[in-house]
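Handout, page 2. Input:
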Amino acid sequence: MNERAAHECPKPPLRILLLVDSIEKQPRWVAETIRTIRDSTALQLAGVVLNMHADEQRLPTRRRLPARLLNAWRKRSGVALQAYLRFDERRYPSTNLDLFESLDVREYLAGLPLIEARPRQTAFSDFPDDAALAKVAELDVDVAVLFGFRILRGPILSLPKRGVWSFHHGDNAVNRGGPAGLWEVFRGWGASGAVLQRISEDLDGGTTLARTWVPSNPISVNQNRLAVYGAAAPLLVRKLKQLYRDGEMALQPAAGVTAFAAYSERLYVTPSLGEIAAGIWALSRRLIQRKLYDLKYRDQWQLGFATDPAQDDGNVTPQTSFFRFKPIVPPSDRFWADPFPVRHKGKSFLFFEELVYASNKGRIVVVEMTKSGPVGKPRVALETDGHLSYPYMFEHEGQWYMLPEMVDSGKQQLFRATEFPDRWEVVETFELGCDVVDATLYKHDGLWWLFAGTQASRYSEFNELSLFYADSPMGPWTPHRNNPVVSDARGARPAGFLFRSGSDLIRPAQDGTPAYGTAIAFKRIRRLDTERYEEELVAHATPNWSPSVTGMHTINSAGPLSVIDFRCRVRR
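Output:
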């Protein structure tokens, strides 16, 4: 079919059915997702199935006092947990729009067929009644999305052409059941996951369609839940649009990823009183330890360097025996981070972020380096009205360019040296369609690729990796069709130059779990083209070479010089 014919005969939108417990009361994250589906030209809301038993489950049952006391005793764990969660929510409230605020979605669903379902109920599961099933079959929908009911089972799972989709707010490889976002905090897990899945009769064991991970909050269940739900919510619309564009291929596992899974952990349920007490004690201990740490120490980002005279000027493969690196310690009133070395006319120059605590605004400084360390004091190379960091450096057609992170300004600019290394001018402003951090370029198979950290939504941190490509490092940039190509705080955000190790192309990435700047993950890129992106973890560098080092997040090399940054514990 030619382009004109394709335009005249557009593909019909995917028909989406919603299964809900209420129309008047939906959490904000669900309401905004429904609105996004409604506004998409690729998707069409086809109807709503309303669980008529949901309100009955919430209505209080009138009982005599002895029966009420007995019921309260039986549910004591749930009562205690809800009391703690209310306290936690008041103590650590949302600093943005509350994702769990109850909103009315009637305006988004106006005019849609409404199916009132009265499911047969067992202890934990709902089986929609035959009348509701018949009406669902008449709607001929592509996907049903579960935003209500309990554990859904029965013929409803096979009526939509592409099944019933649901979120599990937990990493279903290690955490099935619930409550969402709680066990990761109580158990002190570094990362919290979420999964979009096509559900089956196996609880949380359906076909995984998409997943994400965020750093776990060490002390607040509410903050942890906000982070997980904020990162997970966009997964649904992304996958639906991918299904619309690519058809059945969108539902196939990525190359090298098997659909087979085994789960050998416990089924997580509402914690017992003992587990609640143990969880509160564990997070309280972390909070006390953090307060005591802050009284005695402060964290300072410092630099480290190592040299290998055997390497020529074209080397960009870093040394990775970190105990060999010598520290470059900044004055006590500032930190130094994000080091990028370059070779220019036989000399080594090191560009990096300098942030003076009093100003709380980063700038880019430069210092010449020898095998003995810095020559003199760093001097300012680039400073603007906004914050600057991560000065990605590259040479192109005989000129030096710098691509610093400047996300606070709401734009991404490219600078060219007018007098290397001290004077720079803006030559391009990149239009990428979203905020990016730690932009990193690499030329591959005739195209320039821009790797950058991006956000899942306005409610989340920069825990995803997006790609853009162009014929020139000046742009214009085209976003990859599968952006974001990685959604995982354990290794999405760039951490320095891409480099070759033998025939392997390696991408350093930041591991931001359990906190920002913890470690560096090295990813081998298996496929990089305009259709697909695939990578796998091949090494993981943790800050264990010195007891005073608590984190690291950038590694680079140019010629004989390799550099890192690391977070150091310094006595107050």
